[in-house]
Amino acid sequence: MMGSIPDEALVWVKLAIIASLVICAALLVGRAFGSSQDPARRPAWIASLFGLIGMLTLGVLVPLRWVDSVLGGSNFWNLAQALCSTIAFWFFYQATRLGAGQPRRERPWWVALGAVLIGEAVFFAFIQDRGATSETFVRDHITDPACYAYLMLYIVTLGMLSGRSAAIRAKKLRGVSGVFFAGFALVAIAAASHVVYLTAAHFELGDAAQNEALRGLFYVIFGPGVLLLMAAFAIVFIQRQRKVLQPVWRVRALRLALIRRKVTDVPLTLSGALRALVGAEPRARVYSESTTLYDATNEENALLTSSERRLLERTNSGILRHLGVEDELRAIAEVVR
Predict the structure, then answer these.
(1) Checking CA distances to 197, which of 137, 165, 275, 336 falls within 20 to 30 Å?
(2) What is the pTM of this model?
């Protein structure tokens, strides 16, 4: 199915697909709750769903004959792959637009997506003698005009969506946006190479072996591109969870609670420790604990170790930085000196 790919390159392509599958499945589960609560997160979740289904039709983890038997046979695995990939990249594009702050377009794009999906299904239905499940379905039927039209509609749509998404990300290439750009750019390049292959194979241009190598090139470029996209979406998800969960501030809240209990000779109960770790607004709890400790050191002459004082100073600095006044206070301190 993946053309004439050298064995070493084929291993890396399969590993990229497997890694993408794992990340995509994790994102699908992790995003489920957030996407139900926030419509802005829904496109990325839907893209993960159809992306996962599409990658399962590549025959890497699940044999194609199993996939095709579930779909009714006659190489419907290929149509499922095209439909799911089209939907996934359409929603990737919508997620990219939302992430860049561009307004959402409703009806015209829904109509366009529906037209492309219907077009793919209709052209696929007109392919003559699709036969039994075959990994070489494309190679065996590419000279059929209906097959050529079906695959060209699919791959050109994929390339356009990826190219437009890459263009949006190209406006800001710092950090994770650069990873998104690289992923979309690779998929767009892979699509362009596949257009060349489909055209050459359909019109029987050039050497058959060279055409097969060109078909394999699509997967060599496409696999890493998809992996980069999955990695970028995973980074965004983790960053969002860090903002929501605030693990650093929760650990600081627990450490300050332990110090405060030591200073006041009051043992820290299990419920108090759990409140520090899982309670709401951990940054506010840290602020409360640090204020109490400062009062204790200033008014009650409580003694803190050097590491405890450093923790208190770092915490206070972090709170001021979050409030956006750290630089102002530093400037005032310099003037006072």
Answers:
(1) 165
(2) 0.78
CA dist 50 and 35 (Å) reads 15
| Spatial distance between the Cα atoms of 285 and 257, rounded to a whole number of angstroms | 9
Which residue is listed with tokens 């496109």? 43
Q: Map out the domains of the chain with their CATH numbers.
A: 7-244 (1.20.1070), 247-336 (no CATH)
> pLDDT band at 239, cuts 50/70/90?
confident
Contact 289, 311 (CB under 8 A): no
The two three-digit tokens of residue 201, written as one number: 């194979």
CA–CA separation, 54 vs 42, rounded Å?
Answer: 18
End-to-end alpha-carbon separation of the chain, Å?
A: 73
Q: Measured between alpha carbons, how far is 63 from 60 in angstroms, rounded to an integer?
A: 7
User: How many angstroms separate the Cα of 130 from the Cα of each of 41, 114, 137, 146, 320?
Assistant: 39, 24, 8, 11, 67
146, HSE (Cβ side, Cα atoms, 13 Å):
12
DSSP label of 58 = T
Task: Return the exposure string of 303-312: e unless at least 16 CB atoms fall within 10 Å of the residue's CB, then b.
Answer: ebeeebeebb
